Amino acid sequence: LITSSMALVVLYSLLVDLVVFAVSEALGYGILSLNYYKVDVILSYINPAQFYSLVSAYLTGSYGGFSSDPSVLGINPVNIVIAGILWIAVPLAILYYLAKYRD
Questions:
Q1: Which of 2, 36, 55, 84 is least enclosed, having the fewest CB within 10 Å?
Q2: 44: CB partners within 8 A, 6+ apart
Q3: Which residue has the higher pLDDT, 74 or 48?
Q4: How far apart are CA 62 and CA 85, in angstroms?
């Protein structure tokens, strides 16, 4: 389970740009538009490896070359804290379930 999770994180980290491009094209958003960046931010909340870029965007006001108020893209302290808590709580809940009921 841990190996497959690590493989998925590595694969997602390597292909995140392709996933963002595919999702934004499927939704009809142009590259480097505001909606493209919103899709990128939403997918960054899903990937724990992108936590640094979310915090950096909040502190600097720039996300991937898009300089604006970070709250326009959905980056605010509440969302960052909730994402961080979920990244910790969900794997622990899954581990607890597997440890208690699987064995």
A1: 2
A2: 50, 53, 54
A3: 74
A4: 24
How far apart CA 62 and CA 42 sit, in angstroms, is 16
> Which residues is 66 bridged to in the sheet?
63
Residues 88, 64 contacting (CB under 8 angstroms): no
Beta bridge partners of 101: none
Q: Which tokens sit at 63?
A: 């996300």
Provide the phi-psi class of 59: left if phi over 0, else alpha when psi is between -120 and 50, else beta: alpha
Element (H, E) at 62: strand 62-63
Closest CA to 55 of 19, 72, 80, 26: 80
Residue among 71, 1, 22, 75 nearest 44 (CA): 75
* φ, ψ (nearest 5 deg) of residue 62: -135, 130
103, pLDDT greater than 70: no
